[in-house]
Each structure stands twice: as structure tokens, then as C-alpha cells.
Specification:
Number of domains: 1
Strand content: under 5%
Distance between the termini: 29 Å
Helix content: over 70%
Shape: rod-shaped
Number of helices: 4
Length: about 90
């Protein structure tokens, strides 16, 4: 369970990183499109902000380990406590 959770967290962060880079590069490819400068500036700044605020995506492998351990240990304790309760009933 730990490895599955870890992989999901890291892959999701990487996927969002790829999406942000693709979105930013689309402004360079569509530079010849006639859109008002104010509209380009607003959308471009939003996309650029997503790419530059990447601390969480860069730290995803480390936070992924922490969250995966917490969730895995919680699941193990929960399963163990259910088995103990069921054995007490029998």
C-alpha cells in the first residue's frame, strides 16, 4: 500500500508539472494570434505563476513519503484493531 500511495503522489505532482510547462509553452507557440495585450498578459502571468511556484511539486517525493507512511500505518493499525475486536467477540 505504501508504494502505491507514494507512486500516486509523485506521478500526480509530475503530471501537474508537465501540464504547467505545456500551458506556458502554448503562449510562445500562439504568439501570432491576435489577442489583446491585456488578455495575453493576464493569462500569461497566471500560467507563469503556476510554473514558478513549484516548491510543492519539487518536494513531492519527500512529502509523498511522509503522507504514504502516515496513511499506511493508519491502515495497518485500523486493520489490526478490527482483528482484535473480532477475536474478542468470538
Amino acid at each position: 500500500m505504501f508504494s502505491i500511495l507514494y507512486i500516486v503522489i509523485v506521478v500526480a505532482a509530475h503530471g501537474f508539472d508537465v501540464y504547467c510547462d505545456y500551458d506556458l509553452k502554448s503562449y510562445y507557440e500562439n504568439a501570432k494570434v491576435t489577442i489583446s495585450d491585456a488578455e495575453i498578459a493576464k493569462d500569461y502571468q497566471k500560467s507563469l505563476r503556476r510554473v514558478t511556484n513549484d516548491t510543492a511539486r519539487n518536494l513531492a517525493p519527500f512529502t509523498g513519503i511522509i503522507f504514504a507512511v502516515i496513511i499506511s500505518v493508519t491502515r495497518i493499525v485500523f486493520d489490526w484493531s478490527l482483528r482484535c475486536i473480532q477475536s474478542l467477540k468470538n
